[in-house]
Design goal:
Shape: elongated
Number of strands: 0
Structural class: mainly alpha
Length: about 100
């Protein structure tokens, strides 16, 4: 059941992306890609299974409130984009 639901969502997303211009498409795909990476990182953090990666040590550490604000902002932006996608999909179906 969950796989069918995910498949339906992906099919709807593909149809919507097909209706968008290249610029909008790239922006949405970038947003979704970033959101997916963020969720994966958070999930791995929760499981204490973050892989080591090359990079430089940060000189600043985010507080819990700062992280919460960033994630809330990301969620708000994603919801706004998804509403825009739904609007465009409906508009395209009506054309």
């Amino acid at each position: 059941m969950k796989i069918k639901s995910t498949k339906d969502i992906l099919n709807n997303l593909k149809q919507t992306i097909d209706c968008l211009s290249t610029r909008e498409e790239n922006g949405i795909l970038t947003l979704l890609n970033s959101y997916t990476k963020t969720l994966t990182l958070l999930e791995n953090y929760d499981k204490s299974s973050i892989d080591d990666f090359d990079g430089k040590q940060s000189s600043y550490q985010l507080s819990y409130e700062e992280v919460k604000n960033v994630l809330d902002n990301l969620q708000t932006k994603l919801i706004k984009k998804m509403k825009q996608l739904n609007y465009l999909q409906v508009k395209n179906q009506m054309s």
